[in-house]
Design a protein that fits this description.
The complex is a heterodimer of chains A (112) and B (117). Chain A is mainly β. Chain A is built from no helices and eleven strands. In chain A, a hairpin with a 3-residue loop joins strand 6 and strand 7. The chains are: A mainly beta (112), B mainly beta (117).
């Protein structure tokens, strides 16, 4: 079946550096993508989302980029902080299915 | 605004026993979801309610799992009998719209961690 996946299971960055977390998706019909952050013992927390008719969307310290040509989604975190350490999931959906499909996650470790 | 509330936080049972989880969504959120998250994996949808009706339960193992949302607010998820492979975190989420779309992101609770021995 179609799925959302991630290239790197673990990403280690120096505090203050920028982080880039990548995600590949296989369903070209997906029209909505979301990034979630999950800290240990907590539920996923919404970070930022993007529709398929957009290439880029910016939030506070975060930017999501969507490349539909190669079915690639990325999350950029500027000036990474220790509090950014968590597992990050991308997820996709399309209106006809109502179902949000999650990838397997990338763990971000921030070194002091 | 208060978040999605779930209880209990942890539960340990033996296989073949039964267990129930409770969820109270964010006030005003019509759509409620139950997800199963196995360690190291992304959440997997079990069932989705719109008010008190089921929208999608295609991935719910109906021979042992059941869920209800009788008054369109709180929801319970039950497993009977439990198997070892049911060990996971059970997450409840809610949203305003029927489709997890642009203006209707899912808000998750902190989950119930179930261990089946």
């Amino acid at each position: 079946g179609e799925s959302v996946g991630l290239h790197l299971p673990t990403l280690s960055v120096q505090e203050g550096d920028n982080s880039i977390i990548n995600c590949a998706y296989s369903n070209s019909a997906s029209d909505y993508f979301i990034w979630y952050k999950q800290e240990s013992g907590k539920g996923p927390q919404f970070i930022i989302d993007i529709r398929s008719n957009m290439d880029k969307r910016q939030g506070q310290r975060v930017t999501v980029l969507l490349n539909k040509t190669v079915k690639h989604l990325s999350l950029q975190i500027a000036a990474t902080q220790p509090g950014d350490s968590a597992v990050y999931f991308c997820a996709e959906t399309k209106d006809s299915s109502y179902k949000l499909i999650f990838g397997s996650g990338t763990r971000l470790l921030v070194r002091p | 605004e208060a978040g999605v509330a779930q209880s209990p936080r942890y539960k340990i049972i033996e296989k073949r026993q039964s267990v129930a989880f409770w969820c109270n969504p964010i006030s005003g959120h019509a759509t409620l979801y139950w997800y199963q998250q196995i360690l190291g994996q992304g959440p997997k949808l079990l069932i989705q309610f719109q008010n008190n009706g089921v929208v999608d339960d295609s991935q719910l193992p109906k021979d042992r799992f059941s869920a209800e949302r009788l008054k369109g607010v709180d929801s319970t998820l039950k497993i009977q009998p439990a198997k070892l492979e049911d060990s996971a975190v059970y997450l409840c989420a809610s949203s305003t719209g029927r489709v997890p779309g642009y203006n209707s992101p899912l808000h998750f609770g902190n989950g119930t961690r179930l261990t089946v021995t």
